[in-house]
Amino acid sequence: MEKTTAKKKSWILRFLDKIEVAGNKLPHPMTIFFYLCILVVAVSGIGSLMGWSATGEMYNSATGAVEETTVNIVNLFSFSGLRYMLTSAVSNFTSYAPLGFTLVIMLGIGVAEHSGWLNGLIRKVVEITPAFLVTPMVVFIGVMTNIAENAGYVVFIPLAAMIFRAYKKHPLAGVAAGFAGVSGGFSANLIIGSTDTILSGFSDAAAKTLDPTYSVTPLSNWYFMIVSTFVITAIGTFVTEKIVIPRLGPYKENGDGTLVEPSGEMTAKENRALKVANWVFLAIVALYVISCIPQNSFMRNAETGSLIENSTLLNSIIPLFTLLFFVPALVYGKICGVFKNDKDVVGAFSKSIASVSGFVAMAFVAAQFTNYFTYTNIGRILSFKGAELLQRMNIHPIGLMVCFVLLTGFINLFMASASAKYAIFAPVFVPMFMGMGLSPEITQVAYRIGDSTMNIIAPVLAWIPYILTIMRKYDKDSGWGTLVSCMVPYSFAFLIGWVALLVIWMVLNLPLGPGAPVFYGM
């Protein structure tokens, strides 16, 4: 990848360059995941011989109770382990969430791209949106997409690259900014989402083991997360504009350091097609909204009526997004003459899937690694041991919360699932910190900060192969080193900024949400 050389680079940019060079000297990501599989198998064998295990309090979702649980390492370096690996290989692959999400959404996004609608839409957006707003807009929307859970990864990050390219910015900077918002700012939002519901459930159960009258609600972190949304947007914008874009330099799409310009003005037919397709897009959005309004709507949870917790809306968000992009694209393609018959549409489907064929191959090995790491209990044992370490430390409450953020971030490098980690952490830390005068709500906030900020550099994050595939679309030489060198500045900037906000919040003793104090018993 080309970089600017007009003036001497700062030590930060030189350091990131070295990370990229070293990282890209590593084997292909698919090979790296294969080696990681071998490493997990070897570690599980060694751990089994040495009798590795860990004991701690853990929330049992089946019984709804907090129970002391002993976790033993599961040996894959054995005949039974070999049998498991062989018999589970196909199911590991087919149940790998990013695979299904990506293939389904590409039926919509891919057709939208090949029809020309997406390109026309972005060109119109570029005409009316000032260039200085594009980066904060991308980071902010990325943060907000976590309300739709995984849709941000499969829908928005590719769009972020296209938007940056249209604004004559490096598309890899768009991938980085979008990824930073979607994943690094995962917990922040202006709206209460499923993450708030899931984590507050764990916190509530853990708090009741010490104080049966205490209640933690999904709104318990709302005020803090509203402010966090704007803090993350500001930090993400600064890192993108001051570090990532200057470091990446100009995007040499046509070989001379400039972007390929769109081919002329849009024709009258294209403008008419764009207008009709956009109205169709808005009509579908309106239909979704109207469908959600009735209390007995099929879009809601059939038992509770919730639009967030286990609702049809969120459980079917990927096919809903696919239709949202596919139908307007079909209309645009028909009016413009791109799609003359069904064969043209099917051809667009085929091209869409072909564009992610590299990801499909990589996903097979990544799925095995993710499953092996969970199956062997290595991540759980690390979590329990980390909890034991923190329990033995005698630190001031603010320092304790900072240490808890760092511990959560470290464990997140090995165990990416926010709910799985918190199922282990909440029963241990929530009552322990309550005994030290810290509320369950502040413990939950600290956990969310550590979990979110390390997502974008966690090798076990299931979406890493997909992000690498998007990057290779714009830079065939990009690899793991390119991704890490782009995301490290965001990760540490988010960590420092978010921890600073946490410290300020604790010093000022501000409510974290409605009826959610920082300190317990005050």
From TrEMBL:
Pfam families: ABG_transport. The keyword Transmembrane applies. The chain crosses the membrane at residues 32-52, 93-113, 172-192, 222-240, 276-293, 313-332, 353-375, 395-415, 422-440, 452-471, 483-508. GO terms for molecular function: secondary active p-aminobenzoyl-glutamate transmembrane transporter activity. The keyword Secreted does not apply. InterPro entries: AbgT (IPR004697). Keywords: Membrane, Transmembrane, Transmembrane helix. One of its GO terms (biological process) is p-aminobenzoyl-glutamate transmembrane transport. It comes from the Bacteria. This is AbgT family transporter. It comes from Candidatus Lachnoclostridium stercorigallinarum.
